[in-house]
Design a protein that fits this description.
860 residues, binds pyridoxal-5'-phosphate, ten-stranded mixed beta sheet, alpha/beta, 18% strand, six-stranded parallel beta sheet
Length: 860
């Protein structure tokens, strides 16, 4: 019989246990083991059965047990301590409050299409979401006043299982928001707080607003599954990354436009400060800039700025992070579709559709005129932008150079901030406890002193802990294998081999990630016989624990999974290589600490950063990786191994073969011998040296707190400062927009006419002083509008400046007709080939980069 309606009855907690509700209502429990202990003590079996879910635990525990706990002094003490600790965490002064810098933004809004915070809130598909979750958690730890904005998907991302033949199966369990750690935002009159957005066809999309508390950080999640919506709009928030292009466009309108409206509602109701900076995590949320332009230009009650001024205000306080160099990963819509949505009953009525279309146009060489590109719009709507590792910053500058064609790659205004991971979430409890026994303090993990404790711990202790962690992983893996094989149709009698699958004394290598082709899940299968020999080596065997989901529409990825599963099904090797279905946070948490080596073999340079290897490193795992993403930056020769990549070899099969060969060689000749080289005390001394070095060299760098501090210093604070200058009465923004138009309009008249130099004769040497005199024509512009620069440095065989620095020349004389003379001296500081040129670029201290207007003048 089907019920016609469902609802969830919330438990009533006896008064002495009220704090349990508070603890369950803040996701900080998910990275705070003592709070998890409190829930476990409520009912250990239910805690297991609910998959460590406090809300469901409290919904399921019976009232007799609650009465018992309410009279249990020891439990009440434990509960009181956890509750006091949460209060202190939520209200104490942290890094942000202590910094005393008046320029810091009062609040920052962070937009992301997915958030991976805990397994019990499955609203993520992979790295992007996990990163967003870690960003919020680290911001909370540091006291950074961030508000997260996202969508609540009714079915989240899919759950993965396998068919008998090893083909990926997807299921989409429906989530009941009442059973999630969320609360609905209400108006003061008790009604639900709603946002409304016009969509094509004249309908209005309505969304309610859920609030998740991520420590100190509120996360607003919009959801269209409400009666006010027609069916097709109720489904807008059905799944993460599913459906047609139009479906995705509606999701992104909700996230961007609806997200800004939700923030306004939230501030109005709670009194929270309005964000001064808006950060869009990848292009999906980019429409937020259009809503801000609407607020500033045509909205009733707004300041009524013209479009260009509103754009300056909004841009100045927006930060855009690009996350992928894979072209298929860039979000693009048909231009027609975008025109249809913004042309008629627009979600941002009054904002001219031609201006919107221009923002996402690929109007550069090689661009496709029929598409609307969300990353391109992201760059145009944000004055500050970044990639997520140094290498990715470099690759992004090349990839998007077309937006600033007059400038060399190095000056394309995309910087980089390397991702990080949230230690309290990802470091195994046993590891934290071991460090704390030796005087380390987890709260001080960002300081080097924490990592210095690593040297105080005996090798035998480290090694014993590592074995415990391997055992834990193996126990979890066997449970998962049994479940998976049962689902694949095996009878219990066929499964006795699982009891001895994996061995806690064997070198354990982990590989888990999404399965797009560039991550090369099956590279390890390039030579199956060789892999088999490594797995079954009589003295130095390895074992592999593998996991990963393929996007449901990607049959290529599913074929790779199938190949791997079929290899691992072979009775000869199945005790040494396992594929565990349904990679998620719950699986990841025991996986990283349980592995000795973390393998990553993407096709360079497509891994923008990668974070799983960072999580492994924080648990004393050694990375074995292609020099891509973060590893390219922080591999130092002795904190793991670099798999040489065959960049430049065009035949992909040959390249794979070469790289796979190098991988096998490394495992056989370096990794396994070192792991099994144990002394009389049973400890592999040289292995532990690498573990210690990994923790000390990488520990402080890979932290999400380091990342969030970098964002605050390098992007949020400068954006807030610009925002304030542009915002006070908007005259700064109006002047800037008028100035930009004037400079662009007059740029045709700007020329470097003639350059003279003296001081270096035929044989310049270090210490010689080069005097440069440049005659430039500025047309209708004045010297205040421009910077005339000497660009100098190393040149290559084609006279191209390859490593250059700039120095401003000084105006010394003006002549009729807009001509000016600029002078400057330069002391030659290094030997070797040297070259220079002179250029003119626009100058205004409200610009974040000299390339911002995209114009430059060089000698003819
Ligand atoms: C860390 C993590 C990822 C991202 O890993 P990458 O190395 O960036 O691919 C994906 N899924 C889960 C569950 C994770 O914990």
């Amino acid at each position: 019989m089907r019920a016609i309606r469902r609802f969830t009855v919330r438990p009533v907690l006896p008064e002495p246990l009220a704090a349990l509700g508070t603890l369950a209502g803040n996701l900080r429990w998910s990275w705070h083991p003592p709070t998890q202990d409190v829930f476990e003590a409520v009912d250990p079996d239910l805690w297991e059965a609910t998959g460590h879910d406090p809300v469901r635990l409290l919904g399921a525990v019976d009232s007799a047990r609650l009465d018992e706990l309410a009279a249990d002094g020891a439990f009440l003490d434990m509960l009181g301590a956890a509750s006091d600790d949460l209060q202190a965490y939520l209200t104490g002064e942290q890094w942000y409050q202590r910094s005393g810098d008046a320029d810091l933004p009062r609040a920052v809004a962070y937009f992301s299409p997915e958030y991976g915070i805990t397994a019990v809130l499955p609203q993520y598909s992979g790295g992007l979401g996990i990163l967003a979750g870690d960003h919020l958690k680290a911001a909370s730890d540091l006291g950074v006043p961030i508000v997260g904005v996202g969508l609540l998907y009714k079915q989240g991302y899919f759950k993965q299982s396998l068919s008998r033949e090893g083909w990926q199966q997807e299921t989409y369990p429906v989530l009941d928001p009442d059973e999630l750690p969320l609360s609905l935002l209400h108006e003061p009159d008790g009604s639900r707080a709603l946002v409304r957005i016009s969509v094509a066809g004249g309908a209005e999309m309505v969304a309610r607003i859920w609030v998740a508390s991520v420590g100190r950080v509120p996360l607003l999640l919009l959801d269209t599954d409400v009666e006010e919506n027609p069916d097709h709009l109720r489904e807008v928030t059905d799944r993460l990354y599913g459906g047609t292009s139009e479906h995705r466009l509606r999701q992104e309108l909700l996230l961007g436009v609806g997200g800004v409206r939700a923030l306004r509602v939230y501030s109005r109701i709670t009194g929270a400060p309005e964000p001064e900076v808006f950060h869009t995590n990848e292009g999906h949320a980019g429409f937020l800039g259009l809503e801000r332009i609407r607020e500033l230009s045509v909205a009733e009650g707004g300041p009524g700025l013209d479009f260009d001024t509103a754009l300056e205000v909004s841009r100045g306080s927006t930060v855009f992070t690009t996350h992928t160099p894979v072209p298929a990963g860039i979000d693009r819509f048909g231009r027609d579709l975008v025109e249809q949505y913004f042309g008629g009953a627009s979600p941002v009525p009054g904002v001219p559709v031609e201006r919107i279309l221009a923002l996402g146009a690929e109007d550069y060489e090689g661009g496709d005129p029929s598409v609307f590109n969300m990353a391109v719009m992201g760059f145009r709507l944000a004055q500050r932008a970044n990639g997520v590792s140094q290498l990715h910053g470099h690759v992004s500058r090349e990839m998007f150079n077309g937006l600033w064609p007059a400038f060399d790659e190095a000056e394309v205004p995309i910087t980089s901030i390397t991702n990080g991971v949230h230690a309290p979430t990802w470091v195994g409890r046993e590891v934290v406890e071991l460090a704390e026994e030796h005087g380390a303090d987890m709260d001080a993990a960002s300081r080097d002193s924490f990592w210095a404790a690593v040297d105080k711990i005996e090798g035998t202790e480290v090694w014993a802990t590592k074995r415990v962690l391997r055992e834990k992983l193996i126990k979890d893996a066997r449970k998962r294998l049994t479940k998976s094989w049962t689902k694949r149709g095996a009878a219990p009698a066929e499964l006795s081999w699982i009891d001895s699958a994996l061995d806690p004394d064997v070198l354990t290598i982990g590989f888990a990630r999404r399965v797009p082709s560039y991550k090369r899940l099956t590279l390890m299968l390039s030579d199956p016989e060789r892999l088999k020999r490594l797995l079954l080596h009589p003295e130095r065997p390895i074992q592999l624990v593998i996991a990963g989901k393929s996007h449901p529409a990607d049959d290529g990825g599913k074929r790779l999974i199938q190949q791997l599963v079929q290899f691992a099904d072979d009775p000869e090797v199945r005790h040494r290589i396992v594929f565990l279905p349904n990679y998620d946070i719950a699986m990841a948490q025991p996986l990283y600490p349980g592995c000795d080596v973390w393998l990553n073999n993407p096709l360079r340079p497509y891994e923008a950063c990668g974070t799983s290897g960072m999580k492994a490193a924080l648990n004393g795992g050694l990375n074995l990786s292609i020099l891509d993403g973060w590893w390219d930056e922080w591999y130092d020769g002795s904190n793991g191994w670099a798999i040489p990549s065959a960049d430049g070899i065009d035949d992909p099969d040959r390249r794979d073969d070469i790289e796979a060969g190098a991988l096998y060689d490394l495992i056989e000749n370096e990794v396994a011998p070192r792991f099994y080289d144990v002394g009389a005390d049973g400890v592999p001394q040289r292995w532990l040296e690498m573990v210690r070095h990994t923790l000390k060299s990488l520990g402080p760098k890979v932290l999400a707190t380091r990342m969030v501090r970098d964002y605050v210093r390098k992007l949020y604070t400068p954006a807030a400062v610009t925002g304030r200058r542009l915002n006070s009465d908007y005259s700064g923004a109006a002047e800037l927009s008028v100035w930009k138009q004037r400079v662009r309009g007059a740029w045709d008249g700007v020329r470097v006419e003639h350059v003279e130099s003296s001081g270096v004769g035929d044989a310049p040497e270090i210490g010689s002083v080069l005097s440069v005199r440049a005659f430039v024509s500025l047309g209708d512009l004045s010297p205040e509008d421009v910077d005339v620069q000497l660009v100098h440095g190393v040149i290559d065989a084609e006279d191209t400046l390859v490593a250059s620095a700039t120095e401003s020349l000084s105006p010394v004389e003006s002549y009729a007709g807009g001509r000016h003379r600029y002078d400057g001296d330069l002391t030659l500081g290094r030997s070797g080939s040297f070259g220079y040129t002179v250029r003119v670029i626009p100058k205004n201290d409200l610009l974040a980069s000299p390339a911002e207007l995209g114009v430059i003048a060089l000698p003819a």
